[in-house]
Amino acid sequence: MHSLKRYFVTPYFMAQVVVVVHSIVGLLNEGLNSAWLGSLLATLPFVVFFAFVILGKLARTSENLPLIIICSATGTILAWYLPSQSYLPLMYAAVFGLIGCLLYVFWFSRYGGRDSSVLKVGGKLPDFTLFRSDGSAVSSNEISQSPALLMFFRGNWCPLCMAQIKEIADQYQTLDKRGVKIYLISPQSSENTQELASRFSVPMTFLVDTDLKSARLLKIAIDDAVPMGVFGYDVDSVMPTVIMLNNEGEIIFADLTDNYRVRPEPSTFIKIFDEYSSVH
Fold first, then answer.
1. Does residue 28 carry a pLDDT above 60?
2. Which CATH architecture has domain 129-278?
3. Which end of the chain is less enclosed by CB atoms within 10 A, N or C?
4. Residue 124 has pLDDT above 80, yes or no
């Protein structure tokens, strides 16, 4: 099923752009009071939303994107109700607008359940090894020696991940004052990891999970997850995951989101570290 998802989002977004352009042309030809208005309303909001995602303007979204779904449904109704010289506006609105949007929100965006048996609050990390971009090894035991925030992210190609990492970097001083070390982990190449690290002036630790060995041990790896059209990365990836450890290496928080668009904010991490410190 995940292999099908890999071929969905890029063609869908490109088709949406074509439909939006065609709908605008249709409006110019047939007038505002035509079914092309419904076609445009059903498809334009998703194109705008996805453009914001691609540009790295969003680190997270609502779970169900209700406004976009409402626009798609309303546009489909208008495309059915308003006159047109063809059935194209209705087809565009129903298929590329409403149905496509529902597939994106309720199918593509979700993992369909995650195994939380390894990352339980109160437990500890299993033994695994990660690597810096220079090839030096970092063990899970070493990471567990101090309060830590581990973020497993999909790669430089994921704009939501990049926006989330920027948020964490902006809160680096706040976390550092609490003794928290930040580890940003992905299965991408050392070259891509080094390039990403060069974007930030704060000393966060960027690590490579070679062949997803650690992610598979933690049960957060996912096969065929990199969308078609993304080059320079292996097709297998990791489900976005945040793990927080106390100074004894115990897991005090694990965000195992089942929706790649739904992610915790840095204020959540700070609050949890403060609450843990206040009772210990």
1. yes
2. 3-Layer(aba) Sandwich (3.40)
3. N
4. yes
- What is the residue extent of each domain of the chain? 2-108, 129-278
Tokens (6 digits) for 122: 């109160």
For residue 118, is pLDDT > 70?
yes
Q: How confident is the model at residue 277 (pLDDT cuts 50, 70, 90)?
A: confident
CA–CA distance, 93 with 45 (Å, rounded to integer): 12
Contact 194/139 with Cβ under 8 angstroms?
no
Residues of 156-190 as b/e, b for ≥16 C-beta within 10 angstroms? bbbbbbbbbbebbbebbeebeeeebbbbbbbbbbb
Residues 6+ apart with CB under 8 A from 132: 138, 205, 206, 207, 208
Instruction: Examine the pLDDT at 87 and tell me if it is beyond 90.
Output: yes
Give how far the C-alpha of residue 193 lies from the chain's centroid of Cα atoms, to the nearest Å.
Answer: 18
Biggest alpha carbon–alpha carbon distance for the chain: 71
> What tokens does 141 get?
């035991």
Q: Which two tokens stand for residue 187?
A: 């299965």
Average pLDDT, integer, range 24-46: 97
In this structure, the strands spanning 148-152 and 181-186 are parallel
- DSSP secondary structure of 15-63: HHHHHHHHHHHHHHHH-SSSHHHHHHHHHHHHHHHHHHHHTT--S---S
> Can you read off the two tokens belonging to residue 232?
């320079």
Residue 185's DSSP bridge partners are 152, 207
Query: How far is the C-alpha of 200 from the C-alpha of 197, rounded, in Å?
Result: 6
Statement: residue 93 has pLDDT above 60: yes
* pLDDT tens digits, 174-185: 999 999 999 999
Q: Give, in order, the Cα–Cα distances in Å from 35 to each of 14, 85, 124, 136, 194.
A: 22, 9, 58, 61, 50
Q: Which residue has the tokens 């001083």?
A: 173
